[in-house]
Amino acid sequence: MKRIISIILLLFISIGTYAQDKVSEELKVLIDKQEHDKIITQYAAKSKDYSALALYYIGLAYYMKEDDSNCVKFMSQSISKDSKDPNPYYFLASTLNYMKKYDEAIKAFQSAIALKPDDGEYYSGLGDSFYNLGKLDLALENYIKSTKQKDAPERSFTMIGQVYSEQKNNEKALEAFYTAKSNLSKDSDSYLNALFNIGLLESLKGNYEKAEPAFIELIKLDPSDFHAYAKLIQLYYHQKEFDKAKPLKNKLYEASRKGLLKDNLKDMFCFDQFKWNGKLIQAFERFEEGSKGIYNKHLFYVVNQDGKIEFRVQTEYSPFSVEQGGAKYLLCMNKGNAHYTFNIGFNDDFKYEELKQSVINVLEGKVKPVASSRPTK
Which of 15, 137, 202, 333 is 20 to 30 A from 102 (CA-CA)? Predict the structure, then answer.
């Protein structure tokens, strides 16, 4: 878990109705210096007779150290001694969210809001609790309330779009992400998130002239967002602007060689998507190159309406074909337990439209395989 607390928040924590006793004054100085270990080692064990404020500071130190159980313990003790300050409720609730105790977190956030109803962070945290419980309407309600408060947290703006997306309301989601973009600073992660989703949703609507600048701006602001490169490549392939896609593909290959790509981009990237016979065809390109053995290079997955892959057509590097002076890649298909090879070949300088049409011809049964094989028992 990662705790992110702004320096401003730590410097100007509200002390509610607490009296500034000597211990709490000492702890406040240590909190300002972010000396959380010192607080824990020198004060936590002697906390029996401490004030509510002192207990709160110790709980905050445990919060920053990601010690959830002790944070809950000291925040609860602080609340027991004085229940009029919203801060212990907020950090208690936030910790309960981290612990996935969302129902308990909801009660604590609501207590914080009752004491301070104009804090956007409180509504945002409450929205997170409902979101994680799958109560999207209540999550949305609180994220919206969060954005209405002074100094609204940036994340709430993008979470509104996220909830609308999960509710399959793409129009509202797109509107929300545009609203987020206009309210957020360009150097924030939330702004980048809004740009990506604007590009994605505009692409789904076929508004490529609006999607393109969103992805381009995102890449300029964050050159390491390689998912944005892949989405922009898909956009250019859909519009048959292959020359625009080429430098982006080169960037992905460079990142692959440097080991910068992770998760589903580590091995390959999706460069095109199109419909065939009511099914989605997703075209991927693998980064593997230069191997002497057989390997797949371009893979066209046939995805049914349930989102499941039925089979695939792919190009395969053929050492035998190369030795014979033939094409570098042969078109093949994996369907069920069978592997089929077609007498259709391509080299690195192939034209994508020719490859795409050849794949469609295979899908429609217009070409017959020259070889097939099944695994032996």
Answer: 15
Of 50, 81, 116, the last residue of a domain is 116
Q: Is residue 90 part of a domain?
A: yes
Task: Identify any residues that bridge with 83 across adjacent strands, giving them in sequence order.
Answer: none
Q: How many CB atoms lie within 10 A of CB 13?
A: 18
Extended strands (E) in the chain: 268-276, 279-286, 295-303, 309-317, 329-335, 338-346, 371-373
Q: Roughly what angle, to the nearest 10 degrees, separates helices 22-32 and 52-64?
A: 20
Residues 232 and 247: their CA atoms lie apart, in Å, by: 11
Residue 220 buriedness (CB in 10 A; 0-12 / 13-18 / 19+): exposed
Range of the domain at 358: 272-373
Give the chain's domain count: 2
In angstroms, the CA 229 to CA 206 distance is 18
Q: CB neighbours (10 Å) of residue 321? A: 15
Report how far residue 139's alpha carbon sits from residue 133's, in angstroms, rounded to the nearest whole number.
9
369: pLDDT strictly greater than 60:
yes
Phi-psi bin for 134: left (phi > 0), alpha (psi -120 to 50), beta?
left
For residue 370, give both structure tokens: 């020259």
Q: Which two tokens stand for residue 155?
A: 């994340």
Alpha-carbon distance 80 to 92, whole Å?
A: 12
Q: Burial code of 229-244, b = ≥16 C-beta within 10 A, e = fewer?
A: bbbbbbbbbeeeeeee
Q: Which residue in this structure is represented by tokens 């007779």?
A: 49
Residue with tokens 């500071």: 57
Q: What pLDDT, in 10s, does the model give residues 260-312? A: 999 999 999 999 999 999 999 999 999 999 888 999 999 999 999 999 999 99
Model pLDDT for residues 238-269, shown as the tens digit of each residue: 999 999 999 999 999 999 999 999 999 999 99
**8 Å CB contact between 121 and 87:** no
pTM: 0.84
H helix count then E strand count, the chain: 17, 7
> Which of the listed residues 89, 116, 143 is the one where a domain comes to its end?
116
